[in-house]
Amino acid sequence: MKKIRLSDTDFDLFDMEISPGEFIFFSKHKEAFRCMWKEQGVTFWKKFTITFRSFTNRHGVIKEISNNSPKFEDFIDQAFIFIHENFVEGREGKARSFIDDIAKLAQNRERFKDLDSKSFGKYPFYLRDTRYVMCY
Question: Which part of the chain is the DUF8117 domain (predicted)?
Answer without folding.
Answer: 43-132
